[in-house]
Amino acid sequence: MIGTVDRRGFLKLSSGLAAGALAGFSCVEIASAAPIEVPTVDRLSLRVLIDSAHDQFLKPATVQGVLHQPPGSGRGADYRKVLHNQWGLSLFAETRRAEEARTILLDFGYSPEALLNNIEILKVDPSKVDALVVSHGHHDHYGGLTGFLDRYRDALAPDLKLYAGGEDNFCHRLSPSGVQGQFTDFGQLDRRELAARRITTVLCETPTVVAGHAFTTGHIKRSSIERILPNTFVERGIKDGLGCDATHYTAAELQGKIVPDEHVHEHATCFNIKDKGLVVISSCGHVGIVNSVRQAQAVSGIERVHAIVGGFHLGPAPKDYLKEIVAEIGKLKPDVVIPMHCSGLNFALEAQAQLPDNVIVPTTGSRLTFGA
Q1: Residue 330 phi/psi, 5° resolution?
Q2: Rounded to 5 degrees, what are φ and ψ at 29?
Q3: Which of 33, 235, 268, 346 has most Cβ atoms within 10 angstroms of its Cβ?
């Protein structure tokens, strides 16, 4: 159940922001805090629209019941075209339950050029998309969104919704410049642009069912040994309708300071596969992949983990810490571990060493099939 936030309610949530700052924010909803009923699907297909590499020589394989198929030539019918790889992630998720089908587009890569190019080559059908999900507020996960909408909005459902983990997704991000105390701009997701494209944003701080076939974890409890590895910094506040407000201000943030990013509203997207268990997709996993899986288990009441998929942000992990985290992943007893994006080659190698029969390394364009 989702409740639309009226103007007065949003003002209260925004700690007394000026009324003019809310121009274009009418398309905002807050997910209900009521417990969810986790849906079950018979089959899930994940097409990797964008990742950082493409393997021309990838061979089809089945690992622990999960089918991994290559994209083919990666050129479609025109030899002059090729799949674009970039730092970022985008997944086209198709599910089926009996005769009922659903499609979710999860994250949108760094640029619309790459996303639109790969959609055309891979011949996925954007008009089938029932819901959009953004995992967190990093440009390499939302950068292609508005360009995608500019191309395909009229072919999409008129009431299409974007499920975001919370208000923090719209904060201004900055990257360290290499000079102490100096930063470079890393952008911010602009909900005014979403409203202009007739997209309702649902803030999912609590677990939320998406398109009747998937669910999000909501806020991820940090209970494991994992820690947030260095990444971006964040600046809170709204100016001219752009930016974010949040209720978790620290003293430093109230003083307008730029602070290390804690990714308070990063969430994972999950599916429960009949007779298999959970598929947990952590697009970047800044808050910890083990934490993300544990949250999915707690939310759903389902212990069995079929697959752990996505970016795990362990590329920059020290060797000893990496070994420890892979061992913790092993304790979850997943059938397969599927690292993408920011997981890092170091993670893939360590996972293959500790879990030699349970690792699939996908590529831009490849397809992963879970269930019958």
Answers
A1: -60, -35
A2: -130, 155
A3: 268
172 CB neighbour count, 10 Å cutoff: 22
Banded model confidence at residue 248, pLDDT cuts 50, 70, 90: low
**Confidence tier at 246 by pLDDT (50, 70, 90):** low
> CB count, 10 Å around CB of 7?
11
Considering only CA atoms, which of 7, 5, 9, 6 is closest in space to residue 19?
Answer: 7
Name the token pair of 96. 């089926």
State the pLDDT confidence band at 309, using cuts at 50, 70 and 90: very high
Give all domains of the chain, ordered by start, each with its CATH number. Answer: 2-371 (3.60.15.10)
User: Has residue 24 got a pLDDT over 60?
Assistant: no
- Could you tell me if 143 and 108 are in contact, meaning their C-beta atoms sit under 8 angstroms apart? yes
- As a whole number of angstroms, the distance between CA 348 and CA 332 comes to 17
Calculate what percentage of the chain has a pLDDT beyond 70.
91
Q: Rounded distance, CA 341 to CA 362, Å?
A: 10
pTM of the model: 0.91
